[in-house]
Design goal:
Radius of gyration: 19 Å
Distance between the termini: 15 Å
Shape: globular
Number of helices: 12
CATH topology of the largest domain: TIM Barrel
Helix content: 25-40%
Structural class: alpha/beta
Strand content: 15-25%
Largest sheet: 8 strands, parallel
CATH class of the largest domain: Alpha Beta
CATH architecture of the largest domain: Alpha-Beta Barrel
Strand order of the largest sheet: 5-6-7-8-9-10-11-12
Length: about 325
């Protein structure tokens, strides 16, 4: 949908968090995002990416990657062209989602209608995250989420049993996702099986470092295990350890909605479950992910809820039910 008269601009935004977000790899106090605007014929499509240091990305590298595509985009490169022009990552995600948004506004057909989704999108249950902390602090945080349908617990290898018991004690009802962020060894994976069964854990997400997860081959876990850092795009599926039964699809890893759709289609052919995740980000990152979440086994899209201030007209959340942005925010037919 791009072509003559097309313009591309990108910038960095630092979005402060309302409170620190702790995982096993460190603490985040702001979301560092890159936003893209692609304009044509009086319409503007927007996209957002979150460069992630864990994957060798920075704001500077993402902006440089986007700038390198300015010529092709302004000359008419499409979403599908981007798959060959640049690698998957936050930069391609921002461009891809902006092109989806622009296409909807130019054609008068929303992204959601193009994907065969009923509109308006129904609210979805999203995981609400409890950051890594002392068991007592995690118990207090869990108490505030006791009525949510789905809770995600960040743990490490220091005392995960105490962390999990504290959360379940304060929040006995929600479904639980446990996320060690690559901090466990097989000792924890095997040794905590019985406890996770007792605590009714629904999903264990990326317990082992991505480079060491062949240890999961042939392991029959009582708790389904999801790959996160171990899978980015559809091309990673052939090398995925057999112990994984679920893949966490994130737009920033897949390089946009186009790449994420490819990954989901091929993962389902392999009978893998789908989780739709996100980075700490604004609603501009979450709106495209909502197009994937309605038909997923798990949705973890609470990124904007950590911000001190989200973008106006973005998503809202009521007791763990995520409501779509206001009409016209992203992917709309206007």
């Amino acid at each position: 949908m791009a072509g003559a008269g097309t313009t591309l601009s990108a910038r960095h935004e630092s979005l402060p968090l309302a409170r620190p977000f702790r995982i096993s790899r460190g603490v985040k106090t702001a979301a560092e995002v890159v936003t893209v605007a692609i304009g044509r014929d009086g319409k503007v499509g927007r996209g957002e990416g979150v460069p992630y240091p864990r994957y060798g990305e920075s704001v500077e590298s993402a902006l440089a990657a986007i700038e390198a595509q300015k010529g092709p985009i302004e000359a008419g490169a499409s979403r599908h062209d981007l798959l060959d022009l640049m690698p998957a990552g936050a930069a391609r995600n921002a461009l891809d989602c902006a092109l989806w948004d622009l296409e909807a506004r130019l054609t008068g057909r929303s992204v959601f209608a193009t994907l065969g989704l009923a509109e308006p999108l129904a609210p979805i249950a999203t995981a609400l995250t409890i950051g890594l902390d002392t068991p007592d602090a995690m118990r207090d945080a869990a108490r505030e989420l006791a009525r949510a349908p789905l809770v995600k617990v960040k743990v490490d290898s220091s005392d995960p049993a105490a962390q999990l018991r504290a959360v379940r004690e304060a929040a006995p009802d929600p479904r639980l996702i446990v996320d060690p962020n690559e901090s466990w060894s097989m000792k924890e994976v095997e040794g905590l099986q019985e406890l996770m069964i007792d605590l009714r854990v629904d999903l264990l997400e990326q317990p082992l470092p991505a480079g060491e997860d062949r240890a999961l081959d042939g392991f029959a876990s009582a708790i389904p295990i999801a790959a996160d850092e171990s899978i980015h795009t559809a091309s990673d599926l052939d090398n995925l350890a057999s112990g994984y039964g679920v893949v966490n699809v994130k737009l920033d890893k897949a390089g946009g909605l186009t790449g994420a759709l490819q990954l989901i289609d091929q993962a389902r052919e392999r009978e893998l479950g789908i989780m739709i995740g996100c980075m700490i980000s604004s609603s501009l990152s979450i709106a495209p992910a909502l197009a994937l979440a309605a038909d997923s086994a798990f949705a973890d899209l609470d990124g904007p809820l950590w911000l001190m201030e989200d973008r106006s007209d973005g998503v809202s959340c009521d007791r763990g039910m995520l409501h779509r942005p206001c009409e016209g925010f992203w992917g709309a037919a206007n």
